[in-house]
Automatic annotation (TrEMBL):
Protein name: HD domain-containing protein
SMART domains in the cross-refs: HDc
A Gene Ontology BP annotation from the UniProt entry: dGTP catabolic process
Domain of life: Archaea
Entries under InterPro entries matching the protein: dGTPase-like, HD/PDEase_dom, HD_assoc_2, HD_domain
GO molecular function, one term: dGTPase activity
Species classification: Archaea, Methanobacteriati, Methanobacteriota, Stenosarchaea group, Halobacteria
Domain HD/PDEase as annotated: residue spans: 46-169
Pfam families per record: HD, HD_assoc_2
Length: 412
């Protein structure tokens, strides 16, 4: 047994299979991966890692299993999956995940190959656990997979509180103790017991507030886009010194990538800018209603072509234009299930907050075009022409429409 002091959950007791997994290279690698990627360029104290987060998820999973009355082999499987749930993450967490997925077909929760052999597999098998079943739990499969990866998972409960703690913002604070205690299974579905609509809403509100202030802060988005662009150049170099391909990149940590970017000629300028926080500036920051639907739905190759066309129209090098198009607003937490008057109901059908938060999400959505400050004006006007943006006023829109609901409606 090992006891670890944690900044969020105080003391975490690690025992059994989790204790033996803790010191494997696969888990220890998570010490080198920042939980929030480029967000530390906005919030300097946001330097916590996927390793800390994995310990927190394991801790909450243990508490949930105790309240659910789950013991023995099944509890061991879930605890192992909780500790291992992020071992598939590439460097800088989600910042490069879409890029590596396009080349490998694998997201971070596809960990079958990482668990199938090596020290992790040996530890699991020593404890009588099948690596493929643990990998399935990480992917959210089956009854108990919902606890590791689902709308009410312990992963979400830990990262909201942990990210709020390390950034210093008050928005991610939730009553994770109550959330864990009120979980139950009904007909195989993980739900919150009767009387917990507000408990479920707290997850929704916390995520809705953390998105614009932390996860999608404009400077963090710019840094993420620059990092993505640099990493793509790194993979496109035909014979880089380290022979890095997408598979290799996906198994590196943040420090490995930083060194590789510094050592490779086509990426050295991006590396310098990221190292010195000399970020590109917003040339366009457009609301969703000003953007043609075809732009929002464009695939990666189309986005790259738009970047080339904008650069050509503006008369600047291709690397001076980055187009950042978020996906359409979504709110997976609204599908969380709660028991109301004996029936299982989706939160989106029960809570009037959901529609208001969806409206807020819609009004916060922005398309970004980024460039060095010296060419920002010509890049911005070129982007409006090439993308067909319907912008009459300033190219950088900071205004937000009001919520399409009132507090009176919540009181009804």
């Amino acid at each position: 047994m090992k006891i670890i002091k944690d900044s969020v959950h105080d003391h975490i007791t690690i025992d059994g299979v989790a204790r033996d997994l803790l010191d494997t290279p696969t888990v220890q690698r998570l010490r080198g991966i920042a939980q929030l990627g480029t967000v530390s360029l906005v919030y300097p104290s946001a330097n916590h890692t996927r390793f800390e987060h994995s310990l927190g998820v394991y801790h909450l999973a243990c508490e949930a299993l105790e309240h659910l009355g789950v013991e023995g082999r099944q509890a061991d499987r879930v605890q192992a999956a909780a500790l291992l749930h992020d071992v598939g993450h590439g460097p800088f967490s989600h910042n490069l995940e879409d890029m590596t997925y396009r080349r490998t077909g694998r997201y971070h929760d596809d960990v079958d190959d990482l668990l199938a052999s090596g020290q992790v597999a040996a530890v699991l098998e020593e404890h009588g656990l099948e690596p493929e079943r643990v990998a399935g739990l990480v992917a959210g499969e089956g009854r108990f997979g919902q606890l590791v990866s689902g709308e009410l998972d312990v992963d979400r409960m830990d990262y909201l509180v942990r990210d709020a703690h390390h950034t210093g913002v008050p928005y991610g604070t939730i009553d994770h103790g109550r959330l864990v205690r009120e979980l139950t299974f009904v007909d195989g579905e993980l739900v919150l017991r009767e009387g917990n609509v507000q408990t479920a809403e707290s997850l929704l509100v916390a995520r809705a507030l953390m998105n614009p202030t932390v996860y999608n802060h404009s400077a963090a988005r710019i840094a993420k886009a620059m990092l993505r662009c640099a990493a793509e150049h790194l993979l496109e170099v035909e014979s880089n010194e380290d022979e890095i391909d997408a598979e290799t990149l996906q198994r590196m940590d943040d420090h490995d990538v930083i060194v590789a970017l510094r050592r490779t000629d086509p990426t050295r300028e991006f590396s310098r800018r990221l190292d010195h926080r000399d970020l590109y500036k917003r040339a366009v920051w457009a609301e969703i209603d000003d953007v043609p639907g075809g732009i929002i739905e464009a695939d990666h190759e189309s986005i790259r072509e738009f970047e080339r066309e904008i650069a050509d129209d503006a008369g600047v090098p291709e690397d001076s234009v980055i187009l950042d198009v978020p996906g359409r607003p979504s709110m997976t937490e609204s599908t969380s299930r709660v028991v109301v008057n004996g029936d299982i109901r989706r939160l989106g059908h029960q809570s009037p907050l959901v529609d208001a938060l969806r409206a807020a999400q819609y009004s916060q959505w922005r398309l970004g075009v980024y460039s060095p400050e010296t060419v920002r004006e010509q890049v911005g006007h070129a982007a409006v022409r090439i993308l067909g943006l319907d912008i009459d006023g300033p190219l950088i829109s900071e205004t937000r429409d009001g919520l399409y609901a009132t507090l009176d409606q919540f009181a009804e």
